């Protein structure tokens, strides 16, 4: 999946990389980033267990940050690959996996243009990144090409009080038609995910790749 950067894309990538490099040392201070609180960690663990029920799956964590979800997934026995644009984030993720004695492959890579083998992964997860990428509908198409037939796509997104983000209806509308069994789960009403009560829109979208129709519902 080769891509030649335009000048604007190169500038965007460099600016974004620098921003997240600068943020890496405090990123885990947020309860849902570091997962230090046992209640928060357990909430995400149970969510991911339900999201990826197939054992020993090959899962891609897109925009993995400091690797908290990658580590949780690897701890379940999955074969996890994490990618992030920020070298500092990837360094933190590698250190975190090593502390837990888990083998996770991490790569510095642009999530919008992942350079990975097609049809390789049983699952792909992305948390709080799609909304910030240019042309997210095109990004979703590229991500779909990384999934094996019946592979599971998990998107954890939101529309925050700051005015940033994507509504769940916007994301489901831009999914490629090859995804089916699309469901939306409300995460706003469960404070354990966030370490505190929240009032904005937060959700998880699950979809299976490889079928020509979509059926939207809530779970």
List the helices and strands and how they pair.
Layout: H1 7-23, H2 31-34, H3 38-51, E1 58-62, H4 68-75, E2 79-84, H5 87-99, E3 105-108, E4 121-127, H6 136-144, E5 147-159, H7 168-174, E6 179-186, E7 201-209, E8 217-218
Parallel strand pairs: 1-2, 1-4, 2-3, 4-5, 6-8
Antiparallel strand pairs: 5-7, 6-7
Brief summary of the model shown:
The chain has 219 residues and is α/β, with parallel strands linked by helices. The protein has helices spanning 7-23, 31-34, 38-51, 68-75, 87-99, 136-144, 168-174; strands at 58-62, 79-84, 105-108, 121-127, 147-159, 179-186, 201-209, 217-218. Residues 212-219 have low confidence and may be disordered.
Description:
By secondary structure, the chain is an alpha/beta fold. It is built from 7 helices and 8 strands, in the order H-H-H-E-H-E-H-E-E-H-E-H-E-E-E. Strands 3-2-1-4-5-7-6-8 form an 8-stranded mixed beta sheet, sandwiched between helices. Strand 1, helix 4 and strand 2 form a beta-alpha-beta unit. The longest helix is centred in the first third of the chain and has 17 residues. The C terminus is likely disordered.
Summary keywords:
Rossmann fold, 7 helices, eight-stranded mixed beta sheet, alpha/beta, 8 strands, globular
CATH architectural name = 3-Layer(aba) Sandwich
Strands of the widest sheet, in order across it, are 3-2-1-4-5-7-6-8
Q: Please work out how many helical segments DSSP would assign.
A: 7
CATH topology: Rossmann fold
Silhouette:
globular
Order of helices and strands: HHHEHEHEEHEHEEE
Query: How many domains is the backbone divided into?
Result: 1
Helix content: 25-40%
Main sheet makeup: 8 strands, mixed
How much of the sequence lies in strands comes to 15-25%
Unreliable spans are 212-219
Structural class of the secondary structure composition? Answer: alpha/beta
Number of beta strands = 8
User: How widely separated are the two ends?
Assistant: 34 Å
CATH class: Alpha Beta
Radius of gyration: 16 Å
- Full CATH superfamily name: Vaccinia Virus protein VP39
Overall pLDDT metric: 93
